[in-house]
Amino acid sequence: MEPLLALGLFVGIPVALAAVIAVLVVSPRGSYGEQGEQGEEELSPGAVLITSAPATPNPAALPSTRTDHSATAGGAHGNW
User: SS3 for 39?
Assistant: First the structure.
């Protein structure tokens, strides 16, 4: 194989694949694009973004101070 042809294939195939993927990502898909043009529906940011409640500590999941002796008897301190 000639070096110029090899270089063309080595560079051309990934560039062509990237172009195809970019076109598929940017182009509207099927009825979604058609429906968006016919009935312009305004969406609020809250309807689009997926949110969750802030993480709060669960006091029931915390170890009890009466029964927990891992700080003095176990863990890294117990192994030394």
Answer: coil
